[in-house]
Specification:
Pfam families: NodS. By secondary structure, the chain is α/β, with parallel strands linked by helices. The protein has seven helices and seven strands; from the N terminus they run H-H-E-H-E-H-E-E-H-E-H-E-E-H.
């Protein structure tokens, strides 16, 4: 059975805007152990201890962003929801090196920037095929040599139109193969997929000369 069509960009933005205006933490990022554990695993999977410039589109209310800010010299976070962006700015108010913008990706991707870390958490399966292809092009353009991409996606019940998490991650496998990169870390359980791709390709120990 084919999936129903993906809502257009305006419809999706309106949906998430309504969610964040009704509740500051609609998925209970702060209180649920599932969410706190997932953030801890995401941060633990980062191959480098420090990054020069990280980018987290789809940052929601900034709960993962605050952890990423502790690992990056500079951090850019963004969300398509005006309400979510305001919440993320409050969460990161003490982090002078972090910037939060209202932006919708891939449409508003900062193509003039150069990142050594991009983090996509439960975002990409909401995009249609053309948007996902454009997203991969944006990553290829702005990810520095040796940079890392982290993607984490829920594998449980979703909106019927959302792309499967496994398919999204397979697309990244192919994209990094074309960049002479590869998947360097993988975690999977009954709830989500968490993968790291790099254009460097070395393990953490190899990067330290072991």
């Amino acid at each position: 059975m084919s999936r129903p069509p993906i809502p257009d960009r305006a419809q999706r933005q309106a949906h998430f805007e309504t969610m964040f205006r009704q509740a500051a933490d609609p998925w209970r990022y702060r209180e649920r152990w599932y969410e706190r554990r997932k953030r801890a695993l995401t941060l633990a999977m980062l191959p480098r201890e420090r990054y020069a410039y990280g980018f987290e589109p789809g940052c929601a209310n900034g709960e993962l962003s605050i952890g990423l800010a502790g690992r990056c010299d500079r951090l850019l976070a963004g969300d398509a929801s005006e309400a979510a962006t305001a919440l993320a700015r409050e969460r990161l108010a003490a982090c002078a090196h972090a910037q939060v913008l209202r932006q919708s990706v891939p449409h508003d991707w900062p193509l003039d920037a150069r990142f050594d870390l991009v983090v996509l958490s439960e975002l990409v399966y909401y995009l249609d095929a053309a948007e996902r292809a454009r997203l991969r092009e944006c990553i290829a353009t702005t990810l520095q040599a040796g940079g890392d991409l982290v993607a984490c996606h829920w594998t449980g019940a979703m909106e019927a139109w959302a792309a499967p998490a496994a398919a999204v991650h397979e697309e990244f496998d192919a994209a990094f193969a074309a960049l002479a990169g590869r998947r360097v870390a993988h975690y999977e359980d009954g709830d989500f997929l968490l993968d790291v791709w790099s254009t460097d390709g070395r393990s953490v120990a190899e990067a330290e000369g072991l």
